[in-house]
User: Fold this.
Amino acid sequence: MQVPAQVEYERATSVAHALDLLVRYGPESRILAGGHSLIPMMKLRLAQPETLIDINGLSELSYIRVADGELQLGALTRHAQLLDSALAGEHCAILHDAERVIADPVVRNWGTIGGSLCQADPSEDLSAAFAALKAIMVIRHPDGSRTVPAREFHTGPYETVVGPAELLTEIRIPLRPGGGSAYEKVGRRVGDWPVGAAGAAVWLAGGTGATIADAGIGLTAVGAEHFAAAEAEEFLRGAAATEESFARAGEIAAEHCRPNSDQRGPAAYKRHLACELTVRALRKASQRARGGDA
Assistant:
């Protein structure tokens, strides 16, 4: 039987209270949001925090809204809430694509988007989606708040820029006209971590949509730096929105990722997926940007 080590428990009643508790208990404390990643790690003794600070009751961190030209997501928003949100789907279809293939309904009903991001698993789906959307993370601390680009949020496997007395509170996605987005994933079975996955956001120039003004590409489970394919994005800026451009962008994305061989597949196969899934995501994102139903 897997049993966590002894741990103290505190229940936060507000964001300010949660920050006070983080200061009081120091770096050996951990935030408990959904808990679907942390608790299994504690049962295996891979994580042994001295104190858990439960923020599940903080409704002030659970919201989906459009304000100041951004789609704003509270960090305690459940995966199921994001999947059910017509507002999120209208502005960022990639989020619905990704949420449909994350875990299972039980996990989605309780797991939080902030918890998933802060777990910083190298195969996490939303990290690639937010990288493609060029999102901004809002991090609260006792003296105020700071913002960090999604592509600078993760510093390594299971590591983020969130400090010992800080809390991720919001994800902001700038909304721009002429855009479309999509997420493509291959897993061994439904709800599993991906063997490889790619997300794309495309903004088309002019009324015809023949040229790509800007693009964002997120990759997960294939060793992409900061979950992004920056070199492929650079190639696409100003390029024609054609199958030839998408194919070359996929090749560039694959060239710059560093997959590892493991139980989910050999590195060569994962590199192939990085290319193919990038092409599929770009194709669907471009169709959506043009107003298609794909």
